[in-house]
Design brief:
Length: about 425
């Protein structure tokens, strides 16, 4: 049970007391950017509306450090981003207070309570990973031991749910409850973003530009790809952002062997005459944006310049022209036929949506993968146009990507990085 400061202050060295602390003066001066209480009220109302539709008495919304969730439902409902565990959880009853079950106790949990104060007031420790035991206790407190409980995905891309040990503990602790594995709730709730969410995404866009500018500033002969990654991370974190991923690779323009960036930047040393192919993703308060644009070390050679001027840039512009309210997602797929029509090829994917991170709608060379609610673009949707044309011989490619918000009248590119072939 939580131990208040009046009991705890003289028992800091007691392990049980320390790990159950609550209401301390610790971190009282900490400052966190949070969404408003009104925004969180909107989110809980939306979640509970979906729960009523599915006849659920409660949902367990997990979220972890996986790129494909970037915190998922847990982050969306609390503002917490987990890095100590596979996932932390927010338990949301149809009626009653939500509960964040956080991985740690002690001073860690006191900091999390302050960082999530606009979202919820009940933050409990997992007691060294006993998440499901805490969930069982909370569901019994709520009188839901016979309820219908929805289990959201940790990672919808890979269809991962909570670990089997936790599921077994729920089943054993609540033998009369019904557990339902839900599908796609979070993406549907995040397909169209609120005004506060869009402001966070715009901030992510500014951070994307800062990241790419940091890459260009650091890029010079003698620097390694890993040092470029370090420069990007420092620039982003200095401005309050989170680095989601850094995909980059360098190759000689005269003898290229890269079509897409490397998800594990190496210790390859840059040389004059190289080109750096990159895709960067940066988050702010859990909302990611993405960017990518080639950087040349020295002037581009004729082949690279032609490929940019005649293939990469006009193909990108053709796809971006099809981003707007009321436009079918299929239009972007049709526009992407530009590369084949001009005798080149590409990576299969040309465009995708962003909720917290990469998600539908997905636009591929030969098909689109969409849910019914996202077949037509709507204001508030976020789209990443990211064609990656590849030469006919398969030896060289250029990734070019920018993130757009669909607006009432068109689209908004959320950063100002130039659509140019940059030389440093």
């Amino acid at each position: 049970m939580a131990m208040l400061w009046s009991e705890l202050s003289t028992k800091i060295d007691n392990n049980k007391a320390f790990n159950n602390m609550s209401g301390t003066p610790y971190f009282r001066d900490a400052v966190y950017d949070q969404f408003s209480r009104e925004e969180y009220a909107r989110r809980y109302a939306a979640m509970r509306g979906k729960m009523r539709e599915l006849k659920l008495d409660a949902v367990i919304a997990p979220g972890g450090p996986s790129h494909w969730s970037f915190g998922g439902g847990m982050l969306w409902l609390s503002g917490h981003w987990e890095w100590h565990a596979i996932a932390a959880y927010v338990l949301v009853p149809l009626e009653g207070e939500p509960t964040l079950i956080y991985s740690m106790g002690g001073t860690h949990i006191e900091a999390v309570r302050r960082a999530t104060s606009n979202a919820l007031s009940d933050v409990r420790s997992s007691r060294s990973g006993k998440y499901a035991e805490v969930m069982v206790e909370r569901l019994k407190e709520l009188g839901l031991e016979n309820g219908r409980i929805g289990l959201l995905e940790i990672d919808p891309r890979h269809e991962d749910y909570l670990p089997v040990n936790q599921y077994n503990t729920l089943r054993t602790g609540l033998p009369n409850a019904e557990f339902v594995f839900t599908v796609g709730i979070m993406h549907e709730l995040l397909s169209v973003h609120s005004a506060e969410e869009l402001d966070a995404i715009r901030m992510s866009g500014k951070l994307c530009q800062i990241a790419l500018e940091a890459l260009a500033e650091r890029a010079k002969p003698g620097v390694t790809e890993q040092q470029l990654r370090a420069a990007i991370a420092g620039a982003v974190m200095d401005k309050g952002g989170e680095l989601d991923f850094t995909i980059l690779a360098s190759t000689p323009m005269d003898d290229p062997s890269v079509i897409f960036g490397n998800p594990r930047p190496s210790n390859r040393v840059l040389q004059r005459g190289d080109i750096i192919i990159n895709e960067l993703a940066v988050g702010y308060r859990g909302y990611a944006a993405q960017i990518g644009s080639p950087i040349c070390i020295g002037p581009p050679n004729d082949r690279v310049k032609r490929f940019w001027d005649e293939i990469a840039l006009p193909g990108f512009e053709a796809i971006a022209a099809e981003i707007g309210p009321g436009k079918p997602v299929e239009n972007m797929r049709i526009a992407a036929q530009y590369f084949r029509a001009h005798g080149e090829q590409s990576r299969p994917i040309h465009c995708h949506g962003i909720d917290l991170v990469t998600d539908g709608p997905h636009v591929f060379q030969d098909h689109i993968d969409v849910e019914p609610f996202e077949e037509i673009l709507k204001p508030g949707m976020v789209v990443m146009a990211e064609p990656n044309p590849v030469t006919a011989d398969g030896m060289f490619g250029i990734f070019l990507g920018h993130t757009f918000i669909v607006t009432e009248s068109g689209k908004e590119c959320i950063e100002d990085f130039p659509w140019e072939l940059i030389s440093v």
